[in-house]
Amino acid sequence: MEAIKRVRLSEIAELITKGTTPTTLGYNFQEDGVNFLKIECFSEDGTYIKEKTAHISEECHEKLKRSKLRTGDTIIGVAEGEATIYASYNEEKSNELTLKCIVNLNEIVLDKSELEIVIGGEQKIIATLVPENSTYKELNWQSSDNSIATVEDGLVKGCKKGRATISN
Fold this sequence. Notes:
Elements: H1 9-12, E1 34-36, E2 54-56, H2 58-64, E3 81-85, E4 88-89, E5 92-93, E6 97-101, E7 107-110, E8 122-124, E9 127-130, E10 142-143, E11 149-152, E12 155-158, E13 166-167
Antiparallel strand pairs: 1-2, 3-6, 4-5, 7-9, 8-12, 10-13, 11-12
Protein backbone atom coordinates (compact mmCIF):
# COMPACT_ATOMS: atom_id res chain seq x y z
CA MET A 1 0.00 0.00 0.00
CA GLU A 2 1.28 3.44 -0.89
CA ALA A 3 2.13 5.78 2.00
CA ILE A 4 -0.23 8.69 2.56
CA LYS A 5 1.35 12.06 1.91
CA ARG A 6 0.00 15.18 3.63
CA VAL A 7 -0.50 18.07 1.16
CA ARG A 8 -2.30 21.39 1.08
CA LEU A 9 -5.66 21.24 -0.68
CA SER A 10 -4.49 23.98 -3.04
CA GLU A 11 -1.82 21.56 -4.34
CA ILE A 12 -4.43 19.02 -5.52
CA ALA A 13 -7.52 21.11 -6.26
CA GLU A 14 -8.18 24.08 -8.52
CA LEU A 15 -11.46 24.98 -6.85
CA ILE A 16 -12.43 24.46 -3.22
CA THR A 17 -16.02 25.20 -2.38
CA LYS A 18 -17.75 25.76 0.93
CA GLY A 19 -21.24 24.42 1.37
CA THR A 20 -24.26 26.26 2.66
CA THR A 21 -24.90 25.77 6.36
CA PRO A 22 -28.22 24.45 7.70
CA THR A 23 -28.82 27.63 9.69
CA THR A 24 -28.57 29.70 6.49
CA LEU A 25 -31.59 27.77 5.22
CA GLY A 26 -33.47 28.09 8.53
CA TYR A 27 -32.69 24.61 9.90
CA ASN A 28 -31.21 23.75 13.28
CA PHE A 29 -28.67 21.11 14.19
CA GLN A 30 -30.13 18.02 15.91
CA GLU A 31 -29.09 15.34 18.42
CA ASP A 32 -29.12 12.67 15.70
CA GLY A 33 -29.75 12.32 11.97
CA VAL A 34 -27.52 12.74 8.94
CA ASN A 35 -23.88 13.46 9.85
CA PHE A 36 -22.81 17.03 9.10
CA LEU A 37 -19.11 17.89 9.36
CA LYS A 38 -18.19 21.37 10.55
CA ILE A 39 -14.71 22.80 10.92
CA GLU A 40 -14.93 22.08 14.65
CA CYS A 41 -14.82 18.37 13.74
CA PHE A 42 -11.11 18.67 12.94
CA SER A 43 -8.11 19.48 15.10
CA GLU A 44 -5.40 21.83 13.85
CA ASP A 45 -3.35 18.86 12.60
CA GLY A 46 -6.36 17.59 10.60
CA THR A 47 -7.42 14.78 12.94
CA TYR A 48 -11.15 14.03 12.83
CA ILE A 49 -12.90 14.52 16.21
CA LYS A 50 -15.92 12.22 15.99
CA GLU A 51 -17.57 13.62 19.14
CA LYS A 52 -17.90 17.02 17.45
CA THR A 53 -19.92 15.68 14.50
CA ALA A 54 -23.18 17.61 14.10
CA HIS A 55 -26.42 16.16 12.72
CA ILE A 56 -29.12 17.47 10.42
CA SER A 57 -32.56 16.24 9.37
CA GLU A 58 -33.19 14.29 6.15
CA GLU A 59 -35.20 17.28 4.88
CA CYS A 60 -32.29 19.64 5.49
CA HIS A 61 -29.90 17.16 3.87
CA GLU A 62 -32.07 17.10 0.73
CA LYS A 63 -32.25 20.92 0.64
CA LEU A 64 -28.49 21.25 0.91
CA LYS A 65 -27.89 18.78 -1.94
CA ARG A 66 -24.38 18.56 -0.58
CA SER A 67 -23.46 15.17 -2.01
CA LYS A 68 -23.31 15.89 -5.73
CA LEU A 69 -20.08 15.04 -7.51
CA ARG A 70 -18.93 16.16 -10.93
CA THR A 71 -16.40 14.64 -13.31
CA GLY A 72 -12.89 15.34 -12.05
CA ASP A 73 -13.93 15.94 -8.43
CA THR A 74 -11.58 14.70 -5.74
CA ILE A 75 -13.07 12.85 -2.78
CA ILE A 76 -11.17 13.26 0.47
CA GLY A 77 -11.89 10.80 3.26
CA VAL A 78 -12.09 12.49 6.64
CA ALA A 79 -12.90 9.54 8.88
CA GLU A 80 -12.81 5.77 8.97
CA GLY A 81 -15.93 4.12 7.62
CA GLU A 82 -17.91 3.46 4.44
CA ALA A 83 -19.93 5.72 2.17
CA THR A 84 -22.02 4.99 -0.90
CA ILE A 85 -21.51 7.32 -3.85
CA TYR A 86 -23.73 7.63 -6.90
CA ALA A 87 -24.63 10.20 -9.52
CA SER A 88 -28.17 11.35 -10.22
CA TYR A 89 -29.90 13.34 -12.93
CA ASN A 90 -33.63 14.09 -12.97
CA GLU A 91 -34.18 11.68 -10.06
CA GLU A 92 -32.43 8.80 -11.92
CA LYS A 93 -29.58 7.17 -9.96
CA SER A 94 -26.46 5.70 -11.52
CA ASN A 95 -24.80 2.55 -10.31
CA GLU A 96 -23.34 2.89 -6.82
CA LEU A 97 -19.75 2.91 -5.64
CA THR A 98 -18.94 1.93 -2.08
CA LEU A 99 -15.99 3.91 -0.78
CA LYS A 100 -14.13 2.59 2.24
CA CYS A 101 -11.94 5.03 4.16
CA ILE A 102 -9.31 3.39 6.34
CA VAL A 103 -6.90 4.54 9.00
CA ASN A 104 -3.49 3.77 7.51
CA LEU A 105 -0.91 1.91 9.59
CA ASN A 106 2.18 4.13 9.77
CA GLU A 107 4.50 2.12 11.98
CA ILE A 108 4.90 -1.07 14.01
CA VAL A 109 7.01 -0.59 17.15
CA LEU A 110 8.43 -3.73 18.82
CA ASP A 111 9.24 -3.74 22.54
CA LYS A 112 12.59 -5.48 21.86
CA SER A 113 15.27 -5.06 19.22
CA GLU A 114 17.37 -8.07 20.31
CA LEU A 115 16.50 -11.27 22.09
CA GLU A 116 18.41 -14.25 23.52
CA ILE A 117 16.49 -17.48 24.06
CA VAL A 118 17.70 -20.83 25.32
CA ILE A 119 16.89 -23.87 23.20
CA GLY A 120 13.35 -24.89 24.11
CA GLY A 121 12.65 -21.52 25.75
CA GLU A 122 10.14 -18.89 24.65
CA GLN A 123 9.74 -15.13 24.91
CA LYS A 124 6.93 -12.83 23.85
CA ILE A 125 7.52 -9.82 21.60
CA ILE A 126 4.90 -7.08 21.94
CA ALA A 127 4.07 -5.03 18.85
CA THR A 128 2.44 -1.60 19.12
CA LEU A 129 0.61 -0.24 16.08
CA VAL A 130 0.85 3.46 15.24
CA PRO A 131 -1.75 4.82 15.16
CA GLU A 132 -3.53 2.44 17.53
CA ASN A 133 -6.83 2.85 15.64
CA SER A 134 -5.39 1.54 12.35
CA THR A 135 -8.04 -0.25 10.31
CA TYR A 136 -5.99 -3.36 9.60
CA LYS A 137 -4.40 -4.74 12.77
CA GLU A 138 -3.43 -8.26 11.71
CA LEU A 139 0.29 -8.91 11.97
CA ASN A 140 2.09 -11.62 10.00
CA TRP A 141 5.02 -12.75 12.13
CA GLN A 142 7.91 -14.51 10.38
CA SER A 143 11.25 -16.06 11.25
CA SER A 144 14.14 -15.90 8.80
CA ASP A 145 15.07 -19.47 9.84
CA ASN A 146 12.44 -21.71 11.45
CA SER A 147 15.09 -24.32 12.32
CA ILE A 148 16.65 -21.78 14.74
CA ALA A 149 13.57 -19.93 16.03
CA THR A 150 9.85 -20.03 15.31
CA VAL A 151 7.29 -17.31 15.99
CA GLU A 152 3.52 -17.37 16.30
CA ASP A 153 1.48 -14.31 17.42
CA GLY A 154 4.69 -12.71 18.75
CA LEU A 155 5.73 -15.75 20.83
CA VAL A 156 9.28 -16.70 19.85
CA LYS A 157 10.55 -20.24 20.57
CA GLY A 158 14.23 -21.22 20.48
CA CYS A 159 14.86 -24.41 18.46
CA LYS A 160 18.64 -24.66 18.02
CA LYS A 161 21.81 -22.58 18.34
CA GLY A 162 22.09 -19.83 15.73
CA ARG A 163 20.79 -16.44 14.70
CA ALA A 164 17.38 -15.65 13.15
CA THR A 165 15.54 -12.45 12.38
CA ILE A 166 11.94 -12.14 13.59
CA SER A 167 9.77 -9.73 11.64
CA ASN A 168 6.16 -8.86 11.04
